[in-house]
Specification:
Blueprint (H helix, E strand, L loop, with lengths): L18 H11 L2 H19 L25 H6 L40 E4 L2 E4 L5 E3 L10 H11 L1 E4 L5 H14 L33 H5 L3 H7 L2 H11 L3 E3 L4 E5 L23 E7 L10 E4 L7 H4 L19 H8 L3 E3 L7 E4 L5 E3 L8 E10 L19
Parallel strand pairs: 3-9
Antiparallel strand pairs: 1-2, 4-10, 5-12, 6-12, 7-10, 7-12, 8-9, 8-11
Helix pairs in contact: 2-5
The chain binds 2-oxoglutaric acid.
The site of 2-oxoglutaric acid has 10 residues, from strand 7, strand 11 and strand 12.
InterPro entries: DegT/StrS_aminotransferase, Phytyl_CoA_dOase-like, PyrdxlP-dep_Trfase, PyrdxlP-dep_Trfase_major
Family: Belongs to the DegT/DnrJ/EryC1 family.
Organism: Candidatus Protofrankia californiensis
């Protein structure tokens, strides 16, 4: 062998695969899709949180002056081993950062996207402002440590009207569902070059998109899809409901998916679930599942502190201030007013993929407007004690125009 053949002038280029490495690699290939999804979701978070930071540029967005030679820092053999746009292992939906052009300009409103570096001072829900301070907000209690103690978990639900449970679901499963939803949308909904799992909004709703959740809209077919059914049927969700309701439960067929995005100023008004299910049993719990990370500025679910203990005559006047006077079910779109009127704070959380909340039918809850480029996606599923009366409106798959 020539002397030069054993010389390696840059680190990492003298790598060969042994049988053991190959065996490990083959086993890891089975996890490839899940790992890719998790990394894409993480990359989307970096994009979102760092996009407004001066001086930072996403890898691949560096524009070499025309005619200048390729970078000399990478070893030729290393460069060759990197994927190219024709490499079959590089999913076509993922921008190849080595070859793709600069991403298109940031969508409208991207500069308002919150980052952890920028403190949140004011939030909105359906466009109505509420200051984010100790007067109006308090962090939700994490009840995850009670998961192994059924009686204590039930007692916490009785006390608080809701539970925040972290890490209950497999994050890979959650992200797979997120990807499947956003893959159903017109590609124009997503920022160019971003993968569906990121759910990064392009800033424009493509022309011809049906009204949300009605036949013809992707959310309508999504809630009827086998993948959504499989996700909803996960034993862990049913077991949790059975632990809380102390009996066999049924999942109500009206399962809802909610998708909110920047600039729409749409969120769930303050309400109790029971106001929408008055013809059925109160022996039920709702499971609210963020499909992907949902930090505060993304507009997750918030609960009005101990509001399940409010008497009907305390709740009734709360319907007076509303932007939907024709609909008597929501309490109010004005969360600040609701907090002041009841002298209670809104409980909030930064949700991570795999977390969920459970709540009782009488707690007042709402959600905040989405103020991030990543779109908010969630599912709410209701489990009811078998043998108790079911509200007939909840026995069919959800459609946004079903009037329920
Ligand atoms: O996701 C939302 O904005 C509202 C969900 C909800 O009201 C519920 O889970 O009961």
């Amino acid at each position: 062998m020539a002397y030069e053949a054993g010389l390696h002038d840059c680190p990492g280029s003298n790598w060969r695969m042994s049988e053991v490495h190959a065996a490990i690699g083959l086993a890891q290939l089975e996890r490839f899709d899940a790992a890719t999804r998790a990394r894409q979701a993480l990359a989307a978070r970096y994009d979102e949180h760092l996009s407004g930071v001066p001086g930072l540029r996403r890898p691949g967005t560096f524009r070499r002056p025309a005619g200048s030679p390729p970078t000399t820092s990478a070893c030729p053999s290393t460069r060759r081993s990197r994927p190219t746009s024709s490499n079959a292992l590089w999913p076509p939906s993922v921008p190849n950062l080595l070859t793709s052009p600069d991403p298109s300009p940031t969508p409208q409103g991207a500069d308002t996207a919150m980052t952890t570096a920028r403190p949140v001072t004011v939030l909105t829900s359906n466009g109505a402002a509420i200051p984010f301070n100790d007067t109006y907000f308090a962090p939700m209690t994490d009840s995850s440590e009670l998961l192994a103690e059924p009686a204590a978990l039930r007692e916490r639900l009785r006390r608080d009207g809701h539970l925040l449970l972290r890490g209950v679901l497999d994050p890979d499963e959650v992200l797979r569902l997120r990807e499947q939803y956003f893959a159903r949308l017109d590609p124009g909904f997503l920022a160019p070059g971003t993968p569906p799992v990121g759910g990064v909004y392009s800033g424009t709703v493509p022309a011809g998109t049906a009204e949300y959740g009605v036949p013809g809209h992707p959310a309508h077919s999504f809630v009827r899809s086998p993948e959504f059914q499989r996700f909803s049927d996960q034993p862990v969700l049913r077991q949790l409901a059975e632990t809380l309701l102390q009996g066999v439960v049924q999942l109500l067929p009206r399962k809802i998916v909610r998708h909110f995005y920047l600039g729409s100023l749409r969120a769930s008004r303050a309400h109790t679930d029971y106001d929408y299910m008055t013809r059925g049993s109160e022996h039920l719990v709702t499971t609210w599942i963020p499909l992907g990370d949902c930090p505060l500025p993304m507009g997750g679910l918030i609960y009005l502190e101990r509001s399940h203990t409010l008497a009907p005559d305390q709740l009734a006047p709360l319907h007076d201030v509303t932007d939907r006077p024709h609909d008597l079910r929501p309490i109010s779109h004005d969360l600040r007013w609701t907090a002041e009127r009841t002298a209670r704070r809104w409980l909030w959380a930064d949700y991570a993929t795999g977390d969920l909340t459970v709540h009782t039918p009488h707690i007042v809850h709402a959600s905040l407007d989405t103020d991030t480029r990543r779109m908010r996606l969630s599912a709410d599923l209701r489990f009811q004690l078998t043998g108790t009366r079911t509200d007939a409106r909840w026995t069919q798959p959800w459609s946004a125009d079903d009037g329920a």
